[in-house]
Specification:
It comes from Streptomyces malaysiensis. This protein is α+β, with helices and mostly antiparallel strands and 617 residues long. The protein contains ten helices and 37 strands.
Length: 617
Amino acid sequence: MTRNWHRFFTAERPLAVRRGRGPGDRSLIVVESDEGPRLTLWDTEHGTVRPLSEVTSGDLAQAVLTSDGGHVLSLHDDNGSEVGHVHAIRLDDGVSHDLTPDLPPYTLRGMDVAGRADRAVITCAAEDGFSLWLLSTDGSAGPELLLRSGNEAWNGLISADARLACVDTTDHNPGVRRFAVTVVDTVTGAVLACLSDGPEAPVRGVRFSPVPGDDRILVATERTGFARPCVWHPTRGTRVDIEAPQLRGDLVPLDWSEDATRVLAVHVDGGIHRVMEADLESGELRPLDHPPGAYFEPDVADTHCHLWASHYGPGHTVRLLHQRFDSPLRLLNGDGPENLPGPEVFPRQDLDGVRCRSTAVRSADGTSLQLWWARPRGVEEPVPLVLHLHGGPNLVTVDRYDPAAQAWLDNGVAYASLNYRGSVTFGRRFREGFMPHIGDRELEDIEAAVRWLVAEGVADPGKVFITGASYGGFLSLLAVGRLPGLFAGALAHVPMADWLAGYEDMNPALRAACSSFFGARPQDDVERFVRASPITYVADVVAPVWINQGTHDTRTAPDQVRGYVEALRAAGGNVVVDWYSGGHETSGRAKALSEQNTMLGLVRAALRQQLWDQTLL
């Protein structure tokens, strides 16, 4: 085995660009290092790109700039547990200040900064429910409670002048993740308005107008079953919907221009991205010229709605963030000339990777599924294949750079990634299609993808491996239990292996999500949770299993993984578990490379008919 594939992991690359809300034009660039995310400050007014070497603590991948550009805000937790407090970190010396010292620890479900004031809002989940808090970013005043709910509430936003805040709520439809946008007065705490399109069609906040004094909010609606931009004026009770009836699929709003006259959105049709711009004054919707690839990546149950996303720069300048499976993130001019950061931030490098193709596959009931796949370069015959499943489940695999995919392909292993039912950007029906019988529809989709890959001569039918993290890890374990003859092995990262045992150990935000997915709590319908749990099927597992699990994970807790491993071993299964010190997500190039090296070794061992628990790596 050569080490040439290491280049896909060791290459310097940015992970995200997050523009500050304040005056001027400053952006945080999240850069991957060997140890984890690091921050660089890009200031176009001064023409500088400065690594923030003093800022090393907190969840830097989700950090935001304060309006004055002097601090970043991020969650500080216990070893990646995702439960802690938001701190303000001074850029010059890295001094950190807790902005909510008197609050109990919480999980963050939203953070936004006012563009023209030293204020921010955070959305928290804790044992007492969900809450929206107003913070003074300079620490001059304590946090002020704006809203509290026993039902899921996410994604708090604040207006440019800090007079208004909004949060995505489910009080109108408890227990169902179809949000409405609730607006509150930050001075009085009074609820001023709520935008709901009824119990079937969610509404999500995107961003308040960047113009001080302009109360309008850019939101995403789903009245047709597919995402569309809408500009809502909560204090006047008016709205302007961008219907785009000529477009099939989601039109996802991302941002609006500094003068609030244009909206940036991405049309997603069958998983393929096309960036578009809407002129709110003329009503024109036009596509932008750009190369194929991904231009944003949705996130769920986290600080921001997107892991990274294209956005506006000064004026009407569009900054396109672009990736492909074989090409790391780069920043493109979407409209008009602009000086962009040089190779010190966005290295110009040819990694000689392989592009993935997109194919529509039919599931058992005829549902169309998007499947990304690729063969190793120069290979036409069936070969071993790794099928990847994203987490969430309300996430999606987009055409973004994936060093693990490239490593498999570079080692002669075909690669595929399936957007199963539960994935976002394919409309509401598809996103909710996995509920409430968790695992059933996803397994139908997984089986359909494998059958197609085998029938097309991409995969050797006896040498297909399944992998994924979080919900993808759960599906990997479930698949080898309920589809025992289909896979040669499962490589599961931070999986849910026992929904019953894991429920009480989850952080409060995840318990609410879990109940929403199942349409019940464990005490309401034990059998539903038992049926969905991989531990139920350990006696049927014939493939080897590898689990990679964090010690401080509050989403898929360690104890339920231990229980699964013990049960599988007792049933005669072949299982290996690797423990790492940390939470639900690992970070850093060194860790990712080490994990990939382990997985390559295990797949090679399986192909030699060697037991994984007897393999030295």
